[in-house]
Design goal:
Elements (H helix, E strand, L loop, with lengths): L6 E6 L7 E13 L2 H6 L5 H7 L2 E4 L8 H9 L11 E3 L2 H9 L4 E4 L5 H5 L11 E11 L7 H25 L9
Parallel strand pairs: 3-4, 3-5
Antiparallel strand pairs: 1-6, 2-5, 2-6
Length: 181
């Protein structure tokens, strides 16, 4: 996969391979949606809210499309919720773009969308976090670390992600205190 690439950021589960995988951050997802959606749908109960909205899924190779929503349903004690419905997108960015239009719930990492949250274009209606078991890893081949440019870039990128992640986590921690419909 990475044979012709010196360095890459990969969204994956932790794994052991011949490559070096430096964890940049583990994904902690939460429900994000447009504030317009909160005005249209009863959001006093998380199970009712999920049941009444379109679910937006991110496609993962060889995984069921509803895997993360199923994990969330179990987390809230409602494994009976029908979560195998909704639209499927290739990336979290596309899920959120759809959610920004006012329809659908995106179960995504809010750190990636801190600007949209800060601007009020996205809201986090519930104080719930899903540790998916996936993360963003900086992946390199061991032999590439002898390349000074790769080694320096790797060190800089790891430090930069760590500093930015801490600031962004603080910005997205609080759920929206929306009035009940």
């Amino acid at each position: 996969m990475l044979s012709d690439i010196d360095i890459a950021i990969v969204f994956t589960e932790p794994r052991v391979t011949d490559a070096i995988h430096d964890l940049l951050w583990m994904v902690r997802s939460t429900i994000l949606c447009s504030p317009k959606l909160l005005q249209k749908v009863d959001h006093t109960d998380i199970a009712k809210f999920i049941s009444s909205c379109d679910l937006l899924h991110m496609k993962l190779e060889d995984k069921p499309r509803h895997m993360f929503w199923e994990m969330l349903a179990r987390l809230i004690g409602r494994p009976d919720l029908a979560v195998d419905r909704g639209l499927v997108f290739d990336t979290q960015q596309l899920c959120v773009q759809y959610a920004l239009m006012g329809d659908g719930l995106a179960l995504v990492d809010p750190i990636l969308f801190a600007d949209e949250i800060k601007a009020g274009r996205l809201v986090r209606p519930f104080d719930i976090w899903l540790d998916e078991g996936y993360g963003y890893y900086l992946t390199t081949h061991p032999e590439d670390l002898s390349n000074e440019a790769v080694a320096l870039f790797r060190s800089w990128l790891i430090a930069r992600f760590n500093a930015d992640r801490l600031q962004l986590e603080a910005a997205v921690e609080a759920p929206v205190k929306a009035d009940a419909p």
